[in-house]
Amino acid sequence: MAAACDLAFDPWDPAFLADPYPAYAELRAQGRVHYYAPTNQWLVPHHADVSALLRDRRLGRTYQHRFTHEEFGRTPPPPEQEPFHTLNDHGMLDLEPPDHTRIRRLVSKAFTPRTVERLKPYVRGLADELASALARAGGGDLLKDVAEPLPVAVIAEMLGIPESDRAPLRPWSADICGMYELNPSEETAAKAVRASVEFSDYLRELIAARRKEPGDDLISGLIAAHDEGDRLTEQEMISTAVLLLNAGHEATVNATVGGWYALFRNPAQLELLRADHSLIPSAVEELMRYDTPLQLFERWVLDEIELAGTTIPRGAEVALLFGSANHDPTVFENPSALDLTRPDNPHISFSAGIHYCIGAPLARIELAASMGALLERAPTLRLAAEPARKPNFVIRGLEGLAVEVG
Prior knowledge:
The chain is 49% helix and 9% strand. Helix 15 packs across helix 17.
């Protein structure tokens, strides 16, 4: 185990944020687990360990089903952050069994493979429309013009949020997701609280309207979902809808933009894709691996564990480094190379275990649809200017991506 001062890991350093993968290689070479004092976390960089710990029931996304904050040696969040934590703590991503099992089972009754499959024509049609508009304009910002509007519209359509109400969705989501970064500031917390209140109030009204007049949408499905008399509470419905919106587009937006930026920097691979559109499914998987949209996933240690001879006590927090795991050379041959034909690609960008991303099939449909539409409608798409990177580590993304067509 390396000491924090010896580590190349520095999630606030712009050089690290620009390309964290060489630092991950150093972390993996230095050992299987590292204590990092600035965030009071244990960093886990190897694919086998990350994959195993995602499935280890001695770890959890929350500890409050077993311990109070005080019993767990943690300070309760400040009272002024209560709206954010109420919203966040009732979503299935931050719950453990039995609550997680119950909510995921009920949500799965509404979020079925058939529901997702039924969206395919809408997704493809919208992707084609956005790509065509970008081509007609001779280019633009791939983030604002294609990557962002597609998944936001799809999940809003799925939830049954009217088009006229969709403008605040992305800003609300961005403000809430700021709290998932390491050591968020008071200003970030205040923005997240405000967005949590506004988004929750909006959804409460929408749920009330759907109770009176149910529709063929996910909110109506969540209201109707029941199992042996068990139903979702209103707060669980609100938290689920917010989770589906946030998780349902943040990663997709960043995977789309980051993926195209990776393709522009690997022109031989881009030409291969342009020549053979049947590579789109494997390209989606490889781009998710190559520059992972969610770099880190946290778990609380509910019962003491030992990793590579290091004891990690109950009450500690582990940081599972998805970006590092996806570049582990023991799993991926030549991991620093972009290979759209990579035959075996067990990346963990969608997590694993009971918290495996429920929206992964939809994300794959969206990523494939936007890629296919851009290859067809804008075959000469090229980078117009080097992009600026967002100053975030956990949710990795670009501020925009200026492109030209023609």
